[in-house]
């Protein structure tokens, strides 16, 4: 096993340590990796690649969370090691809490799937549009390519991918969003990733939802092509679920927990 020391050279799978506007990612491996690092034969393990913007795959809620199950774990795409999924998780932007860590616990506890261990690899970037993630001209596509290379180096292949994004596409038409997401999926499939991809309906910001984006997200679902419906996270409204800061887009701890519950149900429905 090779764990990359951050700042060392050369890193064969480099990922940027700041986003397109200079905000830092939580990349420092200041924690002790869990043991075992490898997949245990006979233990049903879900490897989860989480992609999206701030609410989807970043650390932006207002409550830190410590996982209740030691099998709830976090793959850091910056150094290739697996850690506890306590927040803030490593590999994505932000230093607060998130729903992903909570969902690791819930997926193991639900009984609606076979998973006994969940390893989440979050690579989200706040404030980003769907077009920025697509392989055709997308400035963030390389994050997906690098994440795959890092996972490959550890012998890990995602069991499923979640896509939770949309708040920043307030000027994007339904057709444009659909085209960018289709290009993103095609790029992921071209990498050899044929696992289920879940897409949520996620657009709420400032108390307003985006009908064109929601329509594109709903229409993208195609079970035959391995594209499955995630939850409608726009249903999580009000001060109980959303922080006043961040244009009312970011979750509170309560909202993150509710989001994790919705996502667990969506994933359980497929597995």
UniProtKB/TrEMBL annotation:
Protein name: Sialate O-acetylesterase domain-containing protein
Residue span, Sialate O-acetylesterase domain: 120-226
Pfam families found in the cross-reference section: SASA
InterPro entries associated with the record: SASA, SGNH_hydro_sf
One Gene Ontology MF term: hydrolase activity, acting on ester bonds
Organism, scientific name: Bradyrhizobium cosmicum
Alphabetical UniProt keywords: Hydrolase
């Amino acid at each position: 096993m090779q764990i990359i020391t951050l700042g060392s050279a050369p890193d064969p799978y480099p990922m940027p340590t700041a986003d397109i506007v200079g905000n830092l990612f939580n990349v420092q491996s200041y924690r002790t990796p869990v043991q075992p690092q490898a997949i245990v034969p006979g233990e049903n393990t879900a490897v989860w690649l989480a992609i999206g913007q701030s609410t989807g795959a970043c650390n932006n809620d207002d409550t830190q969370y410590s996982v209740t199950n030691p099998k709830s774990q976090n793959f850091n795409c910056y150094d290739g090691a697996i850690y506890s999924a306590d927040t803030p998780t490593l590999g994505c932007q932000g230093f607060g809490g998130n729903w992903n860590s909570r969902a690791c616990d819930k997926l193991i506890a639900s009984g609606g799937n076979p998973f006994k261990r969940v390893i989440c690899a979050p690579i989200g970037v706040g404030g980003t549009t769907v077009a920025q993630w697509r392989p055709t001209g997308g400035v963030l596509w390389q994050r997906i390519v690098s994440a795959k290379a890092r996972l490959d180096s550890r012998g890990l292949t995602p069991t499923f991918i979640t896509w939770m994004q949309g708040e920043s596409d307030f000027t994007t038409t339904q057709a444009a969003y659909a085209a960018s997401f289709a290009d993103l999926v095609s790029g992921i499939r071209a990498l050899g990733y044929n696992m289920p991809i879940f897409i949520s309906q996620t657009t709420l910001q400032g108390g307003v939802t985006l009908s064109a984006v929601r329509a594109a997200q709903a229409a993208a679902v195609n079970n035959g092509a391995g594209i499955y419906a995630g939850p409608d996270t726009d249903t999580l409204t009000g001060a109980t679920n959303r922080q006043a800061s961040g244009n009312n887009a970011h979750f509170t701890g309560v909202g993150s927990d509710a989001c994790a519950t919705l996502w667990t149900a969506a994933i359980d429905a497929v597995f």
